[in-house]
User: What shape does this take?
Amino acid sequence: MNLRSEIDYYSELRLLDKARLLNLFLHELAEEARGTYGPGVDQVHDGAHLRFVNELLHRLTRVIEQLLAEEATRPADDVVLRMLLAPRADKVAERLVYNAYARAIQGFESYDTTVLMSS
Assistant: This one.
C-alpha cells in the first residue's frame, strides 16, 4: 500500500465522503476485531488488540464528528491517514487496520460523480 497515494486520494474527497469512508473503515475494523474474542462474554483471547481497535474507534468517531461539523481544528488529512496506515511495530494491529482499510476502499464509492445522460 502506498501511503502517499492514499493520502492524496483521501485529501481530494469532499468532507462528507471523508466521513463516509472513515465510517466504512470503522465498520470493517469492527469486523476484524471479532477475531479477538469468542462467543461468550468471558472469552476475550486477545484483549490487547481488542483495546487497540477500541482506541482507534474512539479517535476516528471524533474525527468523523469534526468532518461533519466542518471544524477547522480537525486533524489534517495526512495526520488521519498516517494514524491509520503508517507501518506499526505490532504487525497484528497493522494487519487488522490494513485488512479493514482495503475492504473499506474497495466498497467505497464517492457520490460526487457527474452523470451524463443522452438526449
